[in-house]
Amino acid sequence: MRTVNPLALGTLCLVLGSSAVRSSHASAPVGASSRAPSSEPAQKSGAASTTLENRAKAIASYELFARLDTALHVIHGEGKIRWTNPSEVDASEIYLHLYMNAFKNDKSLFLRSPFGAGRSGAKATDYGYIEVESLTLEGTDAHNLWKNVEWQMKDDSTDARVPLPSPIAPGETVTFEVSFESKLPRIVERTGYSQDYHFVAQWFPKLAKREPDGTWAHFAYNPQSEYYADFGNYRVTLEVPNGFVVGATGKQTQREVRGNVVRLTYSQDSVHDFAFAAWDQFVSTRTTIDGVAVELLQPPGYERATEVTLGALRHALPHFSQRYGRYPYPTLTVVHPPQDAENSGGMEYPTLITTGGPWYAPYLGVRALEAVTVHELGHQWFYGLLASNEHAWPFLDEGVNSYAEAVALGEFYGAGSLLHTPCVDVAMTSAVRPLAIAFGQDEIVGQAASEFTSFRSLGAHVYSRTATILDTAARVYGEDRLRKALARYTRDYRFSHPTPTDLFTELRAELGEQAVENLHRAVFERGRVDYLVRSLQSVQKTDDAGVFGDDAEVHEHDSGAPAPDAPWLSRVVVARQGDLEFPVTVRLVFEDGSSIDQRWSGHGETHALTYTSPSRLVGAMVDPEHRVRLDEDLLNNARRESSPLIPRVWERAVYYFGLLLALFGP
Amino acid sequence: MSLRLALRSRPGLILALTAWRFAAAWLVGLPIVAQVYGSGVSQLVEGERALFAPGGLILAEVLSRLGSALASALGVSTVLFCVAWVLSLAPLSLFIVGLAKPGRLTFAEHGLATLRSFPRIAVIAVGTLALQGLAVLLGTLAVAVLAALAESSSQDVRAMIIGSGLSMTLLAWLSLAGLRDLGYAALVNERVGLLGAFGISIRTLRRSPRAILGAYTIFSLSSAFLVILNALVANAADVSRAGSYRIVFLFVIHQLTLFGLTALRGGWLCTGLATISSWSQAPDGKRARSDAMADPNPGLAASSDPPAPNSAVS
Asked: Which helix (H) or strand (E) holds A655?
C-alpha cells in the first residue's frame, strides 16, 4: 500500500505535472464527435486555456470483446489496449489493475479486514476474480508478457507489474493484445451479480495511470479507495443472451442478434473507464435532457422512482452543465439496481451512474433518491471529466462533489432539500454539518483514501467536512466568487487530472489569499474554529467621580445616579478558538429592540467591542447569519443578559403530549 | 346523544379533563423542554425561533449536540407518559360517571360513584390497551408479510398495500377503543361486572349497529378533521417568525383542539350511554330499536331533544 503525503504530492504535481499534462493534451486531440459547448464563460488565459473543452488526449484506449455468461456469471474477454507513453521518460514496464481480484478471497486487501472495511461493509459470499490468459505486445515476437507478472502486494492480486521486453519511448504508442476471464462475485460492493442482475465494473485488465514524470500511479484496490486512470477511447462489444437489457458507458453503435445472443457495441471517446449493467428484467425509460440522450434502467414497478429520478436529472443536468462546463457526451445511462443488489447502487462511471435509496423514501418526504442521483451525476464532472486521483485525494471528487450536490439540491428543492414534510424542512447542508463537526479533527481531510481509519471516518471528513468547508467559503467570501472559482477549475482542468494545488490556485484567484490560507488549513491541517461570546456588559454613563484638580483648586465630584436619558456604554468580548480565521459579523441587540452589526476580521483570539447607545445592550451574537458552517458550536455564538424562556418549544411539547394522551390515553 | 348534550350537561368535566391532560402533558414534556432550554438555544439572537426556521440548521445542531441527553430525556418522558396514562384513569372515571349522572351532583355522590366504578374502568382500560398492543403487533406482522409479498409489485402498489395495512391496524386500534368506551358506558350505567359490560357492549353493537357505528365514525372523523385542521393552522402561523402573538394564537388553537377532542369523546360516550340505557329500558328491545333507528346521526343530532343519557338510573 502506498503512503501519500497529499500536500507534498500536490506541490510536486504543480511543479512537475499539471502544466505539462495540460499542454500535452492540447497537442493531439483524438476523434470524439461531440457538440460544441454553448454559452461557456471565457477560458482562462495561459496553458490551461488551450485545454480542449470536449476531448481528451487518448492515452489508454481499449477495444474489447466480452461475452457475458449470465448463468455462470463469467465474462470471457479479449481485445486490444492501445497505449501512448504520456511521460517524458521511457517506460520499461507497465502496471495493470485487476480489481476484480479484490473479491478473490478473504486475504485480498479489499476483503481482509475482519470488520468489513468498505462502503457496504459486506463480506463476500460468492467470490470473484479475473485471470489474464495472455498479454502480448503487438508487432513484437508474440510471447506472453503475463508470465513475468509481479504482484505488488502480498496476498493481493489487484496491482500487477509487467516488465516490457523493450522500453517504450515518450510519446510512442504501442498496442497490447489481451485475453482474460472474469468471474463476477455476488455483489459485495459496486460490482457483481444478484440472481440474473449483473453490474459489471472493474472487469478488464486496466492500465494504471502514468504520470508526466514517469512514475506509475498504481495501487492495490483498497476498500476505501476509488480510481485513477488515463483518458482514452473505448470500443466495447458485449455479447449477452437475447432478452437481456444492457446499459453501458458510451453510445450503442451496433446491435446484432445471433441466435440466442445479441452483440452490442458501445463507443465513447475521452473517458477513463467502462462499466455496464445487464438484466433481463430492466424497464427502460428514454428521454432527452439538455440535448443528452438519457436512458433510465430500473426494476419493474419503479414508476414513482422514474418520476423522481427524471425530475432530479431534469434539474441537475443543465445545472451542472451551466456551472461546471457543458456535459460533453451524447448519452447518460442511469441504472437503479433491484433491492437485493443495492450495494451496486450509488456509484459513478463515465456516462453511466447507478442510483438507489430506500424505495419508500419518496413517500415519506425524504429526498434520498434525488440526493443519490444528483450526487452521482455530479461525479460526471468531479471524477469523470476532471479525473483527479481519487486514491490520493478523495476530497477532490467526493468532497467537492458533495458540495456541488448540496448546492444543486438546494437550488431545486429549497430549504427541504433533504427532508420535506408538512411539519419540518431540513436542508442537505444542515444534515451534513453535524457529521462534519462530530469527526472534526480526527483526521486530515486531504489525505489518501487508504489513510482513513474507517470508511465512516472517510465519509465524515471527505464528504461532509469538505462540503461544509466549501459551504463556509461560499457564505463567508461570496457564493458568486466560489462559483466562479469552481467554474474555472472545472473548465480549465477538464480532462487534466487536477491536483489540490490546481483547485487552490483557482480558489486563490477568486477568493483571495486569506481565504485560501483558511481553506488550506481546513483541508490539510485539521483546521477548526469555534466562535463564541465571552462576556456582555452594559452600563449607563455617569459623570466621572473622584477627587480632581491640583493643590490650588481641589474639588470632589460624586457621580450620583445617571440621568434617565444618559447613554449606555456597552462592551462585548467575542472569542475565536481554533486556527481558522473567518471574518464575521457581531450583532449587538439592545433593550429597545434595535440592533447593529459590526464586523470582526477574525484575527486574534479575542475581540472587544465597545459601543455607546441610547438603549441598554441585552444580547450579542457572533455570526448571526450562520455563515461559518465550520463553527464547531453554533449554540455558544450568542449571549444574552438573561436567559429567555422557550415558549414555542414548551407550547409544542404540551400540545403534542396532550394530543397523545387524548388519542392514545385510556 | 350529542356533542351538544355533553357540552351542555357537563362542560366543567370536559374542561377539567382537558386541564388534567394539559397538566400531565406539561409534566411529561418537561424533561425534553428542559434539555432544549439547557442547550443554550434561547441565547441566540433569534432565540428558540431558530429551531423552527426552514432548513433545520439549528434544529440539527441541537439534536446532534444534545444527542444522548435528549434520548435520556425522551426515555424519562416516556416513563412519565405511562404514569400519566395510568393516572388519567381517575379523571376519566370522574368524567364518565359525571356524564352518566343527571343533574347536579354533590362531590360526595360523584366521588363515591367514581370510586365504585374506578377499578373496573381501570381493568377495562388496561385490558383494552393490551388488546390494542396485540392488534398493533399483528398489524405490524401483517404489514411486514404484505410488504414482502408485494416486493415485486410496483412501488405505488406496495405503498398502497402497506398504507392499507397500517390503516387497518389503526382501524383495529380505534375499534377496540370504541368497544372499550361502550364497555365504560355499560359498566357505569348498568353496574355490571367486566364480563357483563363486555356482553352489553357487544349486544348494543349488534342491536344498534347503525347508531353506534355512525356515532363512532362521526366522532373519529371529527377528531381527525380537528387535528388536521389544527396542523394546517399551526403551519400557517409559522412560529419561526417573530411575534409573541403567534405563540399565544397557537397555544389557544392547540388547547381548543384538545378541548374539542375531549368534548367529542364526551359526545360519543353520551351516545353510548343513551343507547345502552335505551336497550336496558326495553326488555324486548323494540322501543329502543325504534329510538335508535329514528336517530341515524345520534352523535351530532342536537336539534331535537335527545333522550337523557342516564335514563336508566334517573
From this structure: helix A647-664
Chain A CA closest to residue B17? A662
Q: What is the pLDDT of residues B234-282, one digit of tens each?
A: 888 888 888 889 999 999 999 999 999 999 999 999 888 888 877 766 5
Among left, alpha and beta (phi > 0; psi -120 to 50; other), residue A259 is left
Q: Are A378 and A317 in contact (CB under 8 A)?
A: no
* A620: β partners: A588, A639
Confidence band for A316, pLDDT divided at 50, 70 and 90: very high
Q: Does B242 touch chain A (CB under 8 A)?
A: no
HSE-CB of A424 using CA atoms within 13 angstroms = 16
Query: b vs e for A327-339, b when ≥16 Cβ sit within 10 Å of the residue's Cβ?
Result: bbbbbbbbbbbbe
- Residues A330/A32, Cβ–Cβ less than 8 Å: no
Interchain pair A339, B151: CB under 8 A: yes
**Residue written as grid cell 353506534:** B212
pTM: 0.87
Q: Please give the backbone phi and psi of residue A655, each rounded to the nearest 5 degrees, phi first.
A: -65, -50
Alpha-carbon distance B30 to B23, whole Å? 11
Q: Which residues of B touch A415 (CB under 8 A)?
A: 54-56
Give the three-class secondary structure for A157: strand
Among all chains, which residue has been given the C-alpha cell 455617569?
A542
Q: pLDDT tens for residues A607-646? A: 999 999 999 999 999 999 999 999 999 999 999 988 888 9
B131: left (phi over 0), alpha (psi -120 to 50) or beta: alpha
**Distance separating alpha carbons of residues A131 and A157, to the nearest angstrom:** 10
φ, ψ dihedrals at A6, nearest 5°: -65, -40
B57, B84, B153: residue with CB nearest A430: B57
Report d(CA A600, CA A609) in Å as an integer.
9
B129 in contact with A at a CB cutoff of 8 Å? Answer: yes
Taking Cα atoms as reference points, which of B313, B222, B281, B212 lies closest to residue B1?
Answer: B212
